[in-house]
C-alpha cells in the first residue's frame, strides 16, 4: 500500500507539471490583461514602470518558470516559517496578487475559513441526511418513502443552486424575515449571541448546498444498497438468523459504503474550492468569491495559483479515493 | 439406512405456493402473478436426502428458499421438526434458524467479501449462543477441519480461496449450529467437475456423521442419482413425479420425467448408442401464463383431451411412487 501510494505520488508530478503549464498558458493567453485596468490618465512612462514592477513585461515562459519556483519552493518555505518561526523564506519574492499586492497565499488563508465553515457544513449535513435516506429507500424500494425521496432528489439535483438560493432568500429572508439574506463575513463568534447569529446566517447557504449534495449522495447510497441487498450473502446473513438491523447495517451497508466513500472523497476538493455560485448568491467571502473577483480584475497570479491548487487537490483526492477503496475492500490489494 | 423402524418425517410440505405479483400500467395495478411454485407437497424423512430436479426456472430454488422462509410463501404449510415454519413470528423464526440451514449455489456471492472466514463461520454462534471467544474459535476450527479446510486459514478473506474451498466455507457456515435440516441449493452447479464430486462426498460424509436431512436441489441428474434417496422431478412450479431413486432412473413414469432422464449422458458407448432420446417440442410456457389443465400438456407427446382441461393431482400410483399425470389415474384408464 505504501509503495503504491509513493509510486502514485511520483507519477502525479509530471501530471501536475503539465496541468500547471496548461493552466498558466490558458490564463495568460486569454484576452484581457492587467494593463487595461490602468487608467488612461497615467503617463506612459509611469505605466511602463507599473508593468515592470508587476513583472508582466517578461516573456510568458520566464514568468511560468518563476511562478513554478515561487509555488513549489518559496511559498512552502514561507509556510514553514509561519509555523515554526524559522526564516527559510529569506525575503524572497512571493506570489503577489496584482489586485491587492498582497501574497496570494495570505488571501487564500483569509478566505479559506469562511469557505470551509459554510461549504464544509453543507457537505457534512448532506452526508448525514443522505446516507440514512439512501439506505431506507433501498430497503423499502418503490414504497412511498422511496418515491418521495426520488422526487426530492430529482429536484435537488436538477434545479441549479442559483435558483434554489434565490428562492430561499425570497421566501425565508424577504417574505418571512426569519434568516438574513446575506452572510456577514466580519462576524466573529465570541459569545452565545454571536454564535446564534452565525448559525442563523449559515442556515440558508448550508441548506442550499445540503439539498444539492444530499440528492446526489442519497442516490449513490440507494443504488449501491440495492445492489448489495440483492446479493446472496445478504440472504446468507438472514439464513444465519441475524436480526434485520444487523443484516442491513452490518452486512449490506458496510459493503454499500465502499463506492459511496469514494464519491465523497472525490467531492472533497469542491469543499475547498467552494461553491462559486452559492458564495456569490449569499455573499460569502470565500475562495470561490476570491476566484471570481480575480477573474474580473485580470489578476493572473491569483487565478493561476487558485486553479492550480484545485488541480492538486483533485489529483490528491483521486489518490485518496483509490487508497480508501483498497482499505475498505479486502478484495483489492495494491502493491 | 434409517434408524427408525417407521420413518418419521422431519419435513412435511403441504400445498406450498409462491406467487410473485406482476404490476403493470401507469398505476402499477396487479395484473397477474408469476406462479413460481404452485401447490407443491412432499415430505422428507429423518436422515433422508430428497433430490429436487428440474430445468432452469421451474421453481426449484424458490421451493428451497420458501421452505426456510427466506421468502414468504403465498400459501401452504411447511412443518419442520414438528413446527409450522410459515406461521412463526420473527423472533421464533430466528430461534428456529439453527435447526434449518442452507448451502447456496454461488459460493463467491454468498459469502460477505469484507468478512474473514472466522467472522463468517462464527457469526451464527454470536447470534444463537452465548459462548466466549475461545469456545467460538475452537468451534470454528473444528468446523473447518470437518469440511477439510486448513485451520490456519481462519483469518483469510473469501476471495483468497478457490471455488471448491469457498463452498466448503459455505458448508461449514451452514453446519455451525448443528442443523437438522439443510437445503443444498445447487451447491455444485458453480464448481468444476473434479471439485463437484469432492463436495458431494463431503456432504455425504457429514450426513453420515451428524444424521443430517438434505433437500438436494440440482439440475445435474447424475449427481442427484448419486446422493439422493428419493427424487422429486419439478416442471413449471409443480411436482411431476416423486419416486425412489432406483425406480425413477430405471423406469420413469411421468412423460416429463421420462424425457428429462433420457437426456442423461451415458458413459458406456454401447448403451449410449441404443438409448432412446426423447426430444420435447417447443419451449417451457411462461410461469405467468400457465396453460389450463396439466402444465406439461403443451409439450407432452402423450397428452389427450383431459390433460388440457383438468389439472392432474400428485397421487400414489405404485408403492412409494407419486405421479401427477392423467395417464396413471386409476379412476379413468388412459385414453391414449
Features of the shown structure:
heterodimer, A: 335 residues, mainly alpha, MetI-like fold, 12 helices, 75% helix, globular, B: 336 residues, alpha/beta, Rossmann fold, 10 helices
How does this structure look, described?
The complex is a heterodimer of chains A (about 325) and B (about 325). Chain A is mainly alpha-helical and about 325 residues long. Chain A has helices at about 1-30, 45-55, 60-85, 105-140, 145-160, 160-175, 190-230, 230-240, 245-275, 275-280, 285-295, 300-330. Chain A is globular. The relative contact order of chain A is 0.14. The model of chain A has no long low-confidence stretch (mean pLDDT about 85). By secondary structure, chain B is α/β, with parallel strands linked by helices. Chain B has one domain (about 10-320): P-loop containing nucleotide triphosphate hydrolases (Rossmann fold, 3-Layer(aba) Sandwich), CATH 3.40.50. Chain B is about 30% helix and about 25% strand. The chains are: A mainly alpha (about 325), B alpha/beta (about 325). The interface of A and B includes residues 236, 255 and 331 of A.
Structure, briefly:
Chain A has 335 residues and is mostly helical. Helix content of chain A is 75%, strand content 0%. Chain A is built from twelve helices and no strands.
Can you give the mean pLDDT of chain B? 86
Beta-strand fraction estimate of chain B: 15-25%
Secondary-structure element sequence of chain B? Answer: EEEHEEHEHHHEHEHEEHHHEE
The CATH architecture of the domain at 108-328 in chain A is Orthogonal Bundle
How much helix, percentage-wise, in residues of chain B?
25-40%
Question: Roughly how many Å apart are the termini of chain A?
Answer: 6 Å
Oligomer state of the chains in this structure: heterodimer
Tally of distinct domains of chain B: 1
Q: Identify the biggest protein-protein contact and residues per side.
A: A-B, 21 and 30 residues
CATH superfamily of the domain at 108-328 in chain A: MetI-like
Order of helices and strands of chain A: HHHHHHHHHHHH
**Mean pLDDT of chain A, nearest integer?**
85
Helix count, DSSP H or I runs of 4 or more residues of chain B: 10
Number of helices of chain A: 12
- What percent of the residues of chain A sit in helical stretches (DSSP H or I)? over 70%
CATH topology of the domain at 108-328 in chain A, what is it called?
A: MetI-like fold
| Helix and strand composition category of chain B | alpha/beta
Major sheet size, sense and barrel closure of chain B = 8 strands, mixed
Q: Quick one: overall form of chain A?
A: globular
Amino acid at each position: 500500500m505504501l509503495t503504491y501510494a509513493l509510486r502514485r505520488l511520483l507519477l502525479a508530478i509530471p501530471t501536475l507539471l503539465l496541468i500547471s503549464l496548461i493552466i498558466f498558458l490558458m490564463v495568460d493567453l486569454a484576452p484581457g490583461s492587467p494593463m487595461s485596468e490602468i487608467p488612461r490618465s497615467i503617463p506612459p512612462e509611469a505605466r511602463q514602470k507599473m508593468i515592470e514592477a508587476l513583472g508582466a513585461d517578461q516573456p510568458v515562459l520566464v514568468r511560468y518558470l518563476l511562478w513554478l519556483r515561487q509555488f513549489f519552493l518559496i511559498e512552502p518555505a514561507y509556510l514553514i516559517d509561519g509555523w515554526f518561526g524559522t526564516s527559510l523564506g529569506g525575503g524572497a519574492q512571493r506570489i503577489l496578487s496584482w489586485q491587492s499586492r498582497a501574497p496570494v497565499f495570505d488571501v487564500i488563508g483569509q478566505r479559506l475559513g469562511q469557505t470551509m465553515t459554510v461549504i464544509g457544513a453543507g457537505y457534512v449535513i448532506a452526508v448525514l441526511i443522505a446516507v440514512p435516506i439512501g439506505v431506507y429507500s433501498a430497503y423499502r424500494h418503490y414504497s412511498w418513502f422511496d418515491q418521495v425521496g426520488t422526487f426530492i432528489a430529482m429536484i435537488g439535483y436538477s434545479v441549479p443552486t442559483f435558483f434554489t438560493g434565490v428562492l430561499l432568500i425570497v421566501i425565508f429572508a424577504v417574505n418571512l424575515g426569519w434568516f438574513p439574506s446575506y452572510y456577514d463575513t466580519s462576524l466573529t463568534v465570541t459569545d452565545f449571541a454571536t454564535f446564534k447569529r452565525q448559525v442563523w446566517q449559515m442556515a440558508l447557504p448550508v441548506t442550499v448546498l445540503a439539498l444539492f449534495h444530499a440528492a446526489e449522495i442519497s442516490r449513490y447510497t440507494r443504488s449501491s444498497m440495492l445492489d448489495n441487498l440483492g446479493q446472496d450473502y445478504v440472504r446468507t446473513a438472514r439464513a444465519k438468523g441475524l436480526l434485520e438491523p444487523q443484516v442491513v447495517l452490518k452486512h449490506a451497508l458496510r459493503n454499500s459504503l465502499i463506492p459511496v466513500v469514494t464519491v465523497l472523497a472525490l467531492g472533497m476538493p469542491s469543499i475547498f474550492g467552494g461553491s462559486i455560485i452559492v458564495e456569490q448568491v449569499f455573499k460569502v467571502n470565500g475562495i470561490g468569491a476570491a476566484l471570481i473577483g480575480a477573474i474580473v480584475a485580470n489578476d493572473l497570479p491569483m487565478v493561476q495559483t487558485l486553479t492550480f491548487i484545485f488541480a492538486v487537490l483533485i489529483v490528491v483526492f483521486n489518490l485518496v479515493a483509490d487508497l480508501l477503496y483498497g482499505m475498505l475492500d479486502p478484495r483489492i490489494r495494491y502493491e | 439406512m434409517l434408524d427408525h423402524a417407521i420413518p418419521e418425517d422431519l419435513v412435511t410440505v403441504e400445498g406450498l405456493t409462491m406467487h410473485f405479483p406482476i404490476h403493470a400500467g401507469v398505476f402499477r395495478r396487479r395484473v397477474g402473478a408469476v406462479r413460481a411454485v404452485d401447490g407443491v407437497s412432499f415430505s422428507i424423512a429423518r436422515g433422508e436426502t430428497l433430490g429436487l430436479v428440474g430445468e432452469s426456472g421451474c421453481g426449484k430454488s424458490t421451493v428451497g428458499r420458501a421452505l426456510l422462509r427466506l421468502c414468504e410463501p403465498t400459501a401452504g404449510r411447511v412443518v419442520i421438526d414438528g413446527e409450522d415454519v410459515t406461521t412463526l413470528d420473527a423472533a421464533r423464526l430466528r430461534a428456529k434458524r439453527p435447526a434449518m440451514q442452507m448451502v447456496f449455489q454461488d459460493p463467491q456471492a454468498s459469502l460477505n467479501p469484507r468478512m474473514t472466514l472466522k467472522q463468517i463461520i462464527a457469526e451464527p454462534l454470536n447470534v444463537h449462543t452465548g459462548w466466549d471467544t475461545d469456545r467460538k474459535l475452537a468451534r470454528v476450527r473444528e468446523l473447518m477441519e470437518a469440511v477439510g479446510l486448513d485451520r490456519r486459514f481462519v483469518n483469510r478473506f473469501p476471495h483468497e480461496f478457490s471455488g471448491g474451498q469457498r463452498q466448503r466455507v459455505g458448508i461449514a457456515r451452514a453446519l455451525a449450529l448443528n442443523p437438522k435440516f439443510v437445503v443444498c441449493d445447487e451447491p455444485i452447479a458453480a464448481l468444476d467437475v473434479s471439485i463437484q464430486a469432492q463436495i458431494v462426498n463431503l456432504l455425504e460424509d457429514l450426513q453420515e456423521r451428524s444424521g443430517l436431512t438434505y433437500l438436494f436441489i440440482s439440475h445435474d441428474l447424475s449427481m442427484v442419482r448419486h446422493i439422493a434417496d428419493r427424487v422429486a422431478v419439478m416442471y413449471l412450479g409443480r411436482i411431476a413425479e416423486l419416486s425412489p431413486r432406483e425406480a425413477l432412473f430405471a423406469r420413469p413414469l411421468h412423460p416429463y420425467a421420462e424425457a428429462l432422464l433420457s437426456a442423461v449422458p451415458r458413459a458406456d458407448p454401447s448403451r449410449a448408442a441404443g438409448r432412446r432420446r426423447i426430444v420435447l417440442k417447443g419451449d417451457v410456457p411462461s410461469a405467468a401464463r400457465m396453460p389450463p389443465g396439466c402444465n406439461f400438456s403443451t409439450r407432452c407427446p402423450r397428452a389427450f383431451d383431459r390433460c388440457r382441461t383438468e389439472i392432474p393431482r400428485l397421487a400414489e400410483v405404485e408403492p412409494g411412487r407419486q405421479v401427477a399425470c392423467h395417464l396413471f389415474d386409476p379412476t379413468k384408464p388412459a385414453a391414449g
